[in-house]
Amino acid sequence: MAGPPEGRVRVLALRWVHLLQGGALLMPFFLLVNVGIGVVRPGSARLLNGALGPQFLAFGLCLPLVAAAGLLPVVRALESAAARTLCGLPGGALAQGPADSWAARRRCAGWFTLHVGLGGLLSGASLAVPPMALVLLAHPLVPALHSDRWAWPWAHAGSALWTAPVAGLALLAALAATVHGAGALLARCAPPLLGPTPADRLAAAERRAADLAARNRLARDLHDSVGHALSAVALQAAAARRVLDSDPQFVRTALAAIEETGRSTVAELDGMLGVLRDGESRPAPGPGLATGLESVIARSRATGTRIDLRVDASLGPLAGLDAQVSAESFRVVQEGLSNALRHAPGAAVSVRLERQRAPEGEMLAVTVENAARTVPGPRPAGGRGLAGISERAALLGGTAWAEDAGGVWRLAARLPLAAEAGAGAGAGAGHQRKDGPGNGTERESAP
User: Fold this and answer.
1) Looking at the record, which segments are called Disordered (predicted)?
2) Residue 220 in contact with residue 265, Cβ under 8 Å?
């Protein structure tokens, strides 16, 4: 063990306690074996007060029972906590939960047997060696100990008396060395026997992927909802300020739209914060076409922007669409309107929802078009919106793209009308985005 002497002494003391804990865990099994032998052969199993041979026999008979107890799932959690605290092992090296698979249980049974077996032997030595060493240390100074009833392997008289303290110190050193070796063995064996199995690592990776997917989903929803709301509110306020004296009716309409935008955005934020608070791994779908399309169009129109909305009659009632497809389609429309309001204020916007037949099946085509950028200067930093739309489409098995075609900025998405099983549960990161027609850009560019 490296480190300062006081650190090494502390580690030795903690590992000694860990071994004594193993000895304490052995006692119920030891007593059970004694009772069992007494039942099978009455009067022949006075092992606790007998010779060492019968006691070691009882000890050996305990170990199969210890191994069987180590198969209990909860044993791994308890032993991992004890080993992490008393053996000074890093938390990541040991599994933290119960053993769910039989492979993990068998490894835990092997560890439990090793811990309890070594602990039982070292606990017995810790009880027997210190008193013996004290007797040897005091032997030259206490005449009563010079009696012949003390059977030492050397003479009691003369200078040989002073070899007893040396033997006592040697016994204590041997005990400490044995404890050190046993503690080091346990510390070395703990990671392979109590560490996570491949199944544990896979489950942990799946939990991390689910958490990442939830965070990505929340990030996309925050960008889409809050970003659109702030853009709309800013443009509505600017438009109202320009006609404050000449068109009071428009100002009232803009203020009402700002109020409605703030109220709906706060409601969405409450839902997202509820997901964070409750620790859900998969947020519920946000607003859909049936519940949010009209309001987002009305808020955008309140900025003075002319918006042409066309919904294919063959789609049927929007409320009948798959909830996930409807929610993601709504985000496509919302992102397209946000881009138009931010980068091409005043330009007319066309929103189309159509049913299309494709080799993959029936698709919902969402297209948002407007004149290309009308605000001079470079595009502001950002670009997360269209990247998020591409991720949303890919998770449903669809495609999304943006292009500047002949002075018309187009954001388009093709989503399967029936969402794929498990859509939205993947990690939202590291997938392959599919290019659409046109230049197939995958980043948010200015209209």
Assistant:
1) 423-447
2) no
Same domain, 165 and 219: no
DSSP string of 74-109, one letter each residue: HHHHHHHHHHHHHS---GGGS--S---SHHHHHHHH
Write the pLDDT tens digit of every residue in 207-241.
777 777 767 777 766 766 676 677 777 777 887 78
In this predicted structure, the answer to whether residue 72 has a pLDDT above a threshold of 60 is yes
Q: Which of 178, 196, 214 is the last residue of a domain?
A: 196
Count Cβ atoms within 10 A of the Cβ of residue 192 and give its class: 0-12 exposed, 13-18 middle, 19 or more buried: exposed
Of 17, 14, 8, give the one whose Cα is nearest residue 126: 17
Asked if residue 434 is part of any domain, the answer here is: no
Is 33 or 142 the better-scoring residue by pLDDT?
33
Same domain, yes or no: 375 and 395: yes
**Residue 324: partners with Cβ closer than 8 Å, 6 or more residues away:** 285, 396, 419, 423, 424
Instruction: Give the CA radius of gyration of the chain.
Output: 38
For the cut 50, the answer to whether the pLDDT of residue 447 exceeds it is no
Report the alpha-carbon distance of residue 412 to residue 3 in Å, rounded: 63
Which residues span the domain enclosing 154? 5-196
Provide the number of structural domains found in the chain.
2
Count other Cβ atoms within 10 Å, centred on residue 375: 14
